[in-house]
Write a structure and sequence with these properties.
By secondary structure, the chain is an alpha/beta fold. The chain is built from 10 helices and 10 strands. It has 2 domains: 155 residues, HAD superfamily/HAD-like (Rossmann fold), CATH 3.40.50.1000; 95 residues, no CATH class. α2 packs across α3.
């Protein structure tokens, strides 16, 4: 479990898969299976810098509701809201996008035409539709997922996604729809990785023990620390080949590209 094969990290993976020790593989979503192409997002010149962001779309939706507010005031209010409060790993409560947008609206006051919760839901949909239109499958993602399923492994998605209803559109737009036996999303669980509740939900959905699952992700804390501390084997996807942070719960294996996995799938 501690990564004894790290000098040639994937040597032991094929044996683990072929021997039946590993029966399922779970994947993180963003920056593991899919990537967002910033060039597909709207351009924004904001506070003296150029950005690619969903903010222009959100500001357009808010402008009719707040006619007294300038566009820059709306943009500043949107940009000032934290994406996620800095919970320590043992807490890691998920805050749905709906609540975050309601906090944005409270900073602007009461909307002119609609109730805040209705407008917040609309903002959620606008943001996630823009993201879905901007994502693509990472190199090797489709090939590896299909190979695992063909070889008889169960495949799961374990994602910190704070607007769970968008998952169908995200998977459809990236070509990953229909490739998962289980989908665990943080908004539905109420906690986000690396909280144990996420990994416990995965085990319950697959009806497997930790030693029978390998989790793959790009985030050293959310994915590798979370999975390894729960007793799972883990694969750290590190495209820049950066060293894993020192400390407990090291990855079992490390890769720089999902395509490295393909030759090791029986």
């Amino acid at each position: 479990m501690s990564g004894s094969n790290r000098s040639d990290p994937l040597d032991g993976l094929r044996h683990q898969l072929a021997s039946g020790v590993v029966r399922a593989v779970s994947f993180d979503l963003f920056d593991t299976l899919v990537s967002v192409d910033p060039a597909r997002l709207p351009h924004l010149n904001f506070n003296g810098a150029n950005h690619r962001s969903t903010l222009p779309l959100l500001a357009d939706a808010l402008a009719p509701e707040y006619p007294a507010a300038t566009r820059i005031e709306i943009l500043n209010t949107l940009a000032s809201q934290p994406v996620r409060p800095p919970f320590p790993p043992e807490q890691c409560r998920e805050i749905p996008d709906q609540f975050l947008f309601e906090a944005v609206l409270s900073g602007l006051g009461a909307p002119r035409y609609t109730h805040p919760e209705i407008l917040a839901a609309r903002l959620c949909d606008i943001q996630m539709e823009a993201i879905a239109a901007s994502i693509h499958a990472c190199p090797g993602a489709l090939e590896v997922l299909r190979a695992l399923r063909t070889a008889g492994f169960r495949v799961a998605l374990l994602s910190n996604l704070s607007h769970a209803s968008a998952i169908g559109n995200l998977l459809s737009k990236s070509g990953l729809e229909g490739l998962f036996d289980a989908t665990i999303l943080s908004e539905n669980i109420g906690f986000c990785k690396p909280h144990p509740a996420m990994f416990r939900a995965l085990l319950e959905k697959l009806n497997l023990s930790p030693q029978h699952i390998v989790h793959i992700g790009d985030d050293a804390v959310a994915d590798i620390w979370g999975a390894s501390s729960f007793g799972m084997r883990s694969i750290w996807l590190s495209p820049a080949a950066r060293p894993y942070p020192a400390g407990r719960h090291q990855p079992t294996w490390t890769i720089s590209d999902l395509r490295q996995l393909r030759p090791h799938i029986p």
